[in-house]
Amino acid sequence: MRVLAVRAMMADIVPRKYARRRPSSFDPPSLFAAAHPHRSRRHPFSSSSSSSYRPRRTKAFAACPFKTLNIPKDSTYAHARKAFLEIAMRHHPDMAGKDADEGTRDKSREIFVRCRKALESLVECEDTGLCLPRSEVERRNAKDDDDGMSDEEFDSWFAKETGHQNPFQFDLDPATMREVADMHADMAGSHGLDRDGGMWHLASLISSAVKSGKEGGAESLLRLEAGNANDVVEAGGKLERRRKRGGRASSYSSPRSTIGRR
Question: Cβ(210)–Cβ(172) under 8 Å?
């Protein structure tokens, strides 16, 4: 009985003494593993020799065109073009010597392409002649287009300026259209004047319509001359080419005047 009691006591003591201790909720390693679960696992794309993973930068870095051309930001477009030509004379692929190795040729070609893209990303300001980034100008133009007048606002402005609802709700005599087109060409187109106002806008629309009629097919020309494209115009009518004034006009007038006189 005494031996059995000793064995039972040893069986109760040994497992507690030599058993592997389980981590509790207050164990610092278990808390650290719960707070950072990814530290206990290796990233699937990491190499076997490195335990940390750093993804590569895939976004392209846009270099400053002014730094690429080595010019200040307040330079004119002519200055930028001159700087590009100087770089092109040194690094153009055709300017490389025969003794240049392949590495030197590739480096020169890379510099030339980078400078050409830098010049293409710049535009010239019409007022000052300075260099402006093309992306900035396009963004500004897109914003101006978004801020433009709607159809209702344009109709209201056009009615206030001209007295008409819109440019397509009134009809003009063909002779009046040609007179307006000639006036617009003399006072605006030929002299490079930028007129403003509803009437000038209407004159530009009429001038465009007359020009498209002259340059278009026979139906457009008949529509402007006679007012109806389906009307038949006899030969020698208004579609006849206008004779030039001067000394040569008399030489063509006598044979034409004798037609039918017998």
Answer: no
CA distance 183 to 192: 13
The pTM assigned to this predicted structure is 0.35
HSE-CB at 234 with a 13 A cutoff on CA atoms is 2
Burial category of 25 from C-beta neighbours within 10 Å (exposed 0-12, middle 13-18, buried 19 and up): exposed
Tokens at 84, concatenated: 């590009």
Contact in structure between 111 and 91 (CB atoms under 8 Å): yes
Whether the CB-CB separation of 237 and 226 falls below 8 Å is answered with no
Rounded Cα–Cα distance for residues 64 and 77 (Å) = 15
Q: Backbone phi, then psi, for 123, in 5-degree steps?
A: -130, 160
Q: Judge whether 161 and 198 are in contact, CB under 8 Å.
A: yes
Alpha-carbon span 209 to 203, nearest angstrom:
10
* Cα-based distances in Å from 230 to 138, 224, 225, 241: 46, 12, 12, 21
Give the domain ranges of the chain.
65-141, 151-231
Amino acid found at 217: G
Helix (H, G, I), strand (E, B) or coil at 78: helix
Query: From CA 186, how far away is CA 197, in angstroms rounded?
Result: 17
Q: Is the pLDDT of residue 16 over 80?
A: no
pLDDT for 186-203, tens place per residue?
Answer: 666 544 455 555 566 667
Q: Which CATH class is domain 65-141?
A: mainly alpha
